[in-house]
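User: For documentation purposes, I need each entry recorded in a consistent format: the amino acid sequence on its own, followed directly by the corresponding structure tokens. There are two entries in this batch. Please keep commentary to a minimum and don't merge the entries.

Assistant: Recorded as requested. Entry 1:
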Amino acid sequence: MATEQPARRGMILVLSSPSGAGKSSLARTLLQTDDRFELSVSVTTRAKRASEIEGTHYHFLTREEFEAARDRGDLLEWAEVHGNFYGTPRAPVEKALGEGRDILFDIDWQGTEQVRAAMPADTVTIFILPPSFTELKARLMRRAEDAPEVIEKRLRNAADEIAHWPDYHDVIVNDDLGRAYRELVGIIEAERRRRDRIAVGGTLAASLLQESGRPA
């Protein structure tokens, strides 16, 4: 018996931003409201925060374990950020796309470049900007999950991260979470209608041309 093919190939949606710009809130809302998306769970050598769950937020590895996976070619992308390693296992992503499932990536610009280079036709990239640097600092302080010296380091790195916004397909300014989310949904729906993602559309078009007597 032939295996049923998915209606369309899945896509990789990458959200990037400096820490505190709101990409995690947008990603969380997307996952709660759109069951066609699943989160790519990264591996990291960073210490687990009190609010994080192993296997849900990250897979936490030792530095030696991470380097072994990287050297085997098991990671689709990897980067060193704030002194820690982050990466994405390759096999689960390739499997999900082939089954028509969409994968959400919450990664930085370094990881984005690697994912886009590895799977350019499958990847949509969006950069989330804060409305101002002052608001970015206030958000980091309100979050109260990092020590003051960590917050200062994130702020120092924010300018370098923001400088990469022109490399992304789309940019959203998160001055209002509800409006920013509506913009995000609009981009996603447009990408899902792209002809190279829709297997059913191509099959239907070929059938219509055959019925009309014109070669496909």
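Entry 2:
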Amino acid sequence: MPTRIPVTTPICLIVLTLTLTVSTRADDQHLTDNSRPAVEAGFRRLFDGQATTGWDGDMTVFRLEQQAVVGGQLQEKIPHNYFLRHEGDFKDFELRLQFKLLGEKTNAGIQIRSQRIPDHHEMIGYQADLGGRYWGALYDESRRRKVLAGPDLEKLMPLLKKEDWNDYRIRCEGPRIQLWINGKQTVDYTETDKDIPLTGHIALQIHGGPPGEAWYRNIRIRELP
């Protein structure tokens, strides 16, 4: 119901009342849309928060909830690694997204420049890692099977929001891969092996192991010239 302002109310108070009403409504709109901010100039969404169009994976393991992709569950052990893969093939790009992990020992990550292994649940390629001692590390999934570069965890851990949303920024340009979590750079790695492909798919992982969930949202990309 509209606010009734007495005719005796000074004009300055009327203006203040209208200003506060507009301001409050703008703040409410911001809160409503906070989980889906505007896409930055030059970026496009890879996931619209409503459907997994353009992605493929085991949808008994992945689901959509609160405009996010959720991998895993908190009731039972996860038998092995699972990946939700985007159909696009990307070379040089900047990828931005938000994530949160639920569960005491949850591990997950974002595959980049990767491929599915034929007739297998695994993917092969670089992974921007999450969880445990791998926060913010660059791991070589199913290939060299080792951490290629990683941060000083003592400096990174105070910046992480446990069981809440965090920002991941991933930039691939030629042989150079850079990672940031919540604005803190965790990796600046240059590939020296000329046989390693510098193109491939992006995928979201939930790692096999104890019960846990990996949540991903606001996934957007800018391809570099």
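Summary note for entry 2:
Confidence is low (pLDDT under 50) at residues 1-9, 11-33.
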